[in-house]
Amino acid sequence: xxxxxxxxxxxxxxxxxxxxxxxxxxxxxxxxxxxxxxxxxxxxxxxxxxxxxxxxxxxxxxxxxxxxxxxxxxxxxxxxxxxxxxxxxxxxxxxxxxxxxxxxxxxxxxxxxxxxxxxxxxxxxxxxxxxxxxxxxxxxxxxxxxxxxxxxxxxxxxxxxxxxxxxxxxxxxxxxxxxxxxxxxxxxxxxxxxxxxxxxxxxxxxxxxxxxxxxxxxxxxxxxxxxxxxxxxxxxxxxxxxxxxxxxxx
Length: 250
What we know:
Blueprint: E1 14-22, H1 25-36, E2 39-43, E3 47-51, E4 57-62, E5 80-86, H2 89-99, E6 102-103, E7 111-115, E8 121-126, E9 134-142, H3 145-156, E10 160-164, E11 167-171, E12 177-182, E13 200-205, H4 209-218, E14 222-227, E15 233-237, E16 243-247
Parallel strand pairs: 1-4, 5-8, 9-12, 13-16
Antiparallel strand pairs: 1-13, 2-3, 3-4, 5-9, 6-7, 7-8, 10-11, 11-12, 14-15, 15-16
Helix pairs in contact: 1-2
């Protein structure tokens, strides 16, 4: 399955939250509130939802046996990461370090690679178009970005806007993007095995979960064990093994 650049294939659901696994969700919430100014939307014993000024919510899910990524070690893959635009990268890096981040190897003239207190990598990228730190995209590690981008384009109703040697992308920088980053040694998560953690997943809101399930299974997704009843969620993997949930109800 492939679509020309810019074609909008359809829409099955929309992103409710980008969910990050952590053994200490309170510390991670404090970190992102301090770094990006996100506000607390909802909190519970094993879940905290943060609200950026724009774009999807960021949810922090308690994973007591969480094994942090060790980027760039492919045996402990990041699976995904967040990219931020910043008006002053030096100040943003200093603030992140003060809040408990770690500077990682890599980076370049226009971006710095760091890890949050739970070990998840993120990038701080130079921009003259923002006045404050802004989440611009969710980057997903994949074996072939061109092959997986159409799945998410149809799932989320976001057009494919980039295809190249490095991978692919859906969405645009004026709203929010999902990047599909090609990695040479891709090791998919094996949820719920804590030895092969998912690290991140998407919660996708749908109006009719049975109809949405029929469509995603036809597109190559796989239904996993887990989920809840009349108001809740079902767990799936995409065609390359990343987990996502279809969610319904209030």
